[in-house]
Write a structure and sequence with these properties.
Blueprint (H helix, E strand, L loop, with lengths): L3 E3 L19 E5 L4 H9 L3 E2 L8 E3 L4 E4 L8 H7 L5 E4 L3 H8 L1 E2 L3 E2 L3 H12 L3 E8 L2 E11 L2 E9 L4 H15 L4 E5 L3 H5 L3 E3 L1 H11 L12 E2 L13
Parallel strand pairs: 1-2, 11-12
Antiparallel strand pairs: 2-4, 3-4, 5-12, 5-13, 6-9, 6-14, 7-8, 9-10, 10-11
Function: Functions in the N-end rule pathway of protein degradation where it conjugates Leu, Phe and, less efficiently, Met from aminoacyl-tRNAs to the N-termini of proteins containing an N-terminal arginine or lysine.
Keywords: Acyltransferase, Cytoplasm, Transferase
InterPro entries: Acyl_CoA_acyltransferase, Leu/Phe-tRNA_Trfase, Leu/Phe-tRNA_Trfase_C, Leu/Phe-tRNA_Trfase_N
Length: 241
Amino acid sequence: MRIVKLSSQSVAFPSPEAALHDPNGLLAIGGDLAPARLLAAYERGIFPWYSPGEAILWWSPDPRAVLFPAQFHVSRSFKRFLRNPPFRITLNHDFAAVIAACSYRPDEGTWIGEEVQQAYLQLHHLGHAHSIEVWQGEELVGGLYGVAQGALFCGESMFSRTTNASKCALWAFCRHFAGYGGELVDCQVLNAHTARLGAREIPRRQFLQQLSNLQRRVLAPECWTAQVIPPQLVELPSQTD
């Protein structure tokens, strides 16, 4: 197997099954982040991930990390926290601020470059990319963003500036998304944080089948209207320790 160099004249991608095993999921290099190419990638279970200043790399790992909203894990301590959370949670109120906040990690520096931020902001303006914001007073303290594919949501990144902020963002999003018929959140690659919240790995072939089925579902437009997420759509899941 070899890495495919993408053509500037086409937004076509090779099959995800052609991705490398090492590094896991690397499929192609090059191209651009124009909306048509990004959407073509997400429709096939492919996403860009690369460092600022380097060539664009496209990935489709096997296995794939996913979270079924109903399986979000609520620990006893988080359940206690949710009885009186200090946050206000909104949808699509400040996408630009969320992706900018996600771009910086104290231990790694900036990893989501300006090119990526502008590309996803374009997708947001076109109605494909969405954000969850977590506010403490007037301060943005957490959030996440990603790309919608029907009843599947491709989570890209999240951030937290205070305890439980990103956890609340994902918890609220899962409840809201499921309330409108959403069935699956793509977490791309499993890490310790998402695993604790209920994410798990499934074979890429199974993920691609789920993607094919769920991206055909059309959710009500109200799902993505800028709004404060109402309490009746973010009630506690049943899973606890």
